[in-house]
Design goal:
CATH topology of the largest domain: Quinone Oxidoreductase, Chain A, domain 1
Shape: globular
CATH architecture of the largest domain: Alpha-Beta Complex
Structural class: alpha/beta
Strand content: 25-35%
CATH class of the largest domain: Alpha Beta
Number of strands: 17
Number of helices: 11
Largest sheet: 7 strands, mixed
Length: 335
């Protein structure tokens, strides 16, 4: 039994409780959690916004800690290794997706806090394939948000072959967007930040944006007509999608990683005439996670974080809900 922050019902407050972890399989590891990030997905799971939450619920899918136990089939890790765990906790390892290196697309993959306790606990268990070692140059205390927010925006850079010569836009300068700006700047791109908050201009440029565009100004968007090679949307609200399609160059892509709840109204004609496309993606594979962490260590990329004790998770969630997080929240273990 281990202590965890538990919500007993939909939308309920979290309270410290003793929980039982799932059995440790031959290919599993047990992680002694030292830090765990907070993401909007945790809030969505607490409120059952997506319809598959199970209660009692232990949130948390940006966990960092030390390996303290493992199954007999685990040979690439050892006790004491510092690792991180993101959205996924298990993959089948035999389907075409897993065999092709796309473990994050495994049709039977298990999610870290769906049907099993997440990372807001003293310990968490997972398949060893998803316990990713943290390399030198990446601080464990701030690494948690990289395993969800960071990976979510890094994955499409690799998947879609974004080039250093590309003009790339980022919609939304928040928990995901502030990391996307850093990645794309170090990737060598000409980086555009689309923001509805003019007060973030200097911050966005400090994070790597070469240009900051007022997303509430239709004329500012029109000036970019036909110029953008790739746009990553990190927001979870509906926007004027046709206006963003018009900013794309021929063969340009609008890529969505924010969980917009409403259907997107996409006109077909701009897609046909310019061979443009709209796409989406979830987090990334274990290999992509490792590459992202190495890239962060090499270029000094890290989340901008605020820290709360894990016992104050409710207060941290209120801070997030109020839109005050700058830019990611991390819970430090004190249970």
């Amino acid at each position: 039994m281990v202590k965890a922050m538990v919500a007993s019902a939909q939308g309920g407050k979290l309270a410290p409780q003793e929980i039982e972890l799932p059995a440790l399989g031959d290919g599993d590891v047990e992680i002694d959690v030292t830090h765990c990030g907070i993401c909007h997905s945790d809030l969505s799971m607490l409120n059952n916004d997506w319809g598959f939450s199970q209660y009692p619920l232990v949130p948390g899918h940006e966990a960092v800690g030390r390996v303290v136990d493992m199954g007999r089939a685990v040979t690439h890790l050892k006790k004491g290794d510092t690792v991180g765990l993101g959205w996924f906790s298990h993959s089948c390892m035999t389907c075409p997706q897993c065999m092709g290196g796309d473990h994050n697309l495994c049709p039977t993959g298990e999610m870290t806090m769906v049907g099993r306790p997440g990372g807001w606990a003293k310990k968490v268990r997972c398949g060893a394939e998803w316990a990713i070692p943290i390399p030198k140059g990446v601080e464990a205390k701030d690494a948690g948000p990289l395993f969800c927010g960071g990976l979510t925006v890094f994955n499409p850079i690799l998947q879609f072959g974004v080039k250093p010569t590309d003009r790339v836009g980022v919609i939304g300068i928040g928990g995901l967007g502030h990391l996307a700006l850093q990645f794309l700047n170090k990737w060598g791109c000409e980086v555009y930040a689309f923001s509805s908050s003019p007060g973030k201009t200097d911050e966005a440029k400090g994070m790597g944006a070469h240009h900051v565009v007022n997303s509430r100004d239709p004329e500012a968007l029109r000036k970019l007509t036909g110029s953008m090679d790739f746009i990553i949307s990190t927001v979870n609200v509906s926007l004027d999608w046709p206006a963003y399609l018009e900013t794309l160059a021929p063969k340009g892509k609008l890529h969505v990683v924010g969980a917009v709840p409403e259907p997107m109204g996409i006109p077909v004609f701009p897609l046909l005439t310019g061979q443009r496309s709209v796409s989406g993606s979830p987090v990334g594979s274990p290999t992509t996670t490792s590459r992202m962490l190495e890239f962060c260590g090499r270029h000094g990329i890290k989340p901008i974080t605020e820290h709360f004790p894990m016992s104050k998770a409710n207060e941290a969630l209120d801070h997030l809900k109020a839109g005050k997080a700058r830019y990611r929240i991390v819970l430090d273990m004190d249970l």
